[in-house]
TrEMBL record:
Domain Glutamine amidotransferase type-2: 2-244
One term of GO molecular function: transferase activity
Keyword line: Glutamine amidotransferase, Transferase
Pfam families associated with the record: GATase_4 (PF13230)
Name assigned to this protein: Class II glutamine amidotransferase
PANTHER family, per database record: GLUTAMINE AMIDOTRANSFERASE DUG3-RELATED (PTHR43187:SF1)
CDD domains (UniProt xref): YafJ
Length: 280
C-alpha cells in the first residue's frame, strides 16, 4: 500500500532521514520489506513545519516515484525541520494524481495514511455526506485517505485528535456493516498540528499494517556510545515509521495493535485505541 515516516525533535536536514539510512524511505520506495507491495512508486509527498509552528506547513507532492525525483533530493538536502512527514504511495484504486498524494494539509494540520477502506467505492457518497459542509469544498482529491482526514476534522480533530479519529473509524465501520462489509478499516495514520504528533495503528480485523517507533535517545546512547549522530540530537527526538530504517540494535519498537501514541515535549504517551460510534 504505502510507506511513511514522521519525525519530531532536533531540527535536521530532511535528507538525513529520507536518504541516508540503510533502509531509508527512498530505499523502501523500491525495496519495501513489510508492505503489501515491494515497490511504492505511485507518487510521494513531504510536509514540514518551519520556525513558526503556528504557520501552515509546507507541502511538496508529485506523482512520480521518489527514487529519481530531482526536486525531492534538492529540497531534502537544503531544508531543515524539527517536525516533518514523508510518504511514498502505492495506489489502491484511486487515480495517480498530485491531489491524491500524501500528506494532506488543512490549516496547521497535516495527515498521512497507509491502508484502505474496504468497499470504499460503495460507501464514498455516504461518507462524503457526513463531512461538515464548511469543510467539504477543501477536499481536492479522490482518496479514502483524504476523506478520512476531513471526517476526522468534522468530528473535532482540532480539539481532540484521538477522539476525532475514533469517531471517524466508528462511522466507517458502522456504514460498512450496514452494507455487509465486515472489516472495512485498515489504517496507520500520522497527524500533527506542528506541536503534537499523533500516530494510530488500527484495523477492523486486528491485523494492521506495520508501524514502529524509535527508542528514546538516552537509552540508545547507552546502547551505542560510539554512534556519533546520537550525540547531536536531543532526548526529545523521535521517529515513527512504517518499517525500520536500519539495523541498529534496540532502536525500533513495534506499535501495538489497536493503539495510538502521542509524541510531545516531555513524556510521550501510548494508549489503546477503539472506534467510537459518532453521535447523530
Amino acid at each position: 500500500m504505502c510507506r511513511w515516516i514522521a519525525y519530531s525533535g532536533t531540527p535536521i536536514l530532511l535528507s538525513r532521514v529520507l536518504f541516508e539510512p540503510t533502509h531509508s524511505l527512498i530505499d523502501q520506495s523500491l525495496h519495501s520489506r513489510m508492505g503489501v507491495e515491494t515497490t511504492n512508486g505511485d507518487g510521494f509527498g513531504i510536509g514540514w513545519y518551519g520556525d513558526d509552528t503556528a504557520a501552515t506547513p509546507a507541502v511538496l507532492r508529485d506523482v512520480g516515484p521518489a527514487w529519481n525525483n530531482r526536486n525531492l533530493r534538492e529540497v531534502a538536502h537544503h531544508v531543515r525541520s524539527g517536525l516533518f512527514f514523508a510518504h511514498i504511495r502505492a495506489a489502491t484504486g484511486t487515480a495517480v494524481q498530485q491531489s491524491n498524494c500524501h500528506p494532506f494539509r488543512h490549516g496547521p494540520w497535516m495527515w498521512m495514511h497507509n491502508g484502505m477502506i474496504e468497499g470504499f467505492r460503495l460507501m464514498r457518497r455516504d461518507l462524503a455526506v457526513a463531512v461538515d459542509p464548511a469543510l467539504y469544498p477543501d477536499i481536492e482529491g479522490t482518496t479514502d485517505s483524504e476523506l478520512m482526514f476531513f471526517l476526522a476534522l468534522t468530528f473535532g480533530l482540532t480539539d481532540d485528535p484521538p477522539g476525532a479519529v475514533a469517531r471517524m473509524a466508528g462511522l466507517i465501520e458502522e456504514t460498512a456493516h450496514e452494507r455487509g462489509i465486515r472489516n472495512p478499516v485498515q489504517m496507520t495514520i500520522a497527524v500533527s498540528d506542528g506541536d503534537g504528533l499523533w500516530a494510530f495503528r488500527y484495523s477492523s480485523e486486528g491485523r494492521s499494517r506495520s508501524l514502529y517507533f524509535s527508542t528514546d535517545v538516552a537509552t540508545l546512547r547507552g546502547l551505542h556510545p560510539d554512534a556519533a549522530f546520537l550525540q547531536n540530537i536531543s532526548d526529545e527526538t523521535r521517529l515513527i515509521v512504517s518499517e525500520p530504517l536500519g539495523g541498529l540494535s534496540g532502536a525500533w519498537n513495534e506499535v501495538p495493535e489497536n493503539s495510538y501514541g502521542l509524541v510531545q515535549p516531555g513524556r510521550d504517551a501510548l494508549h489503546s485505541f477503539h472506534p467510537v460510534r459518532p453521535a447523530p
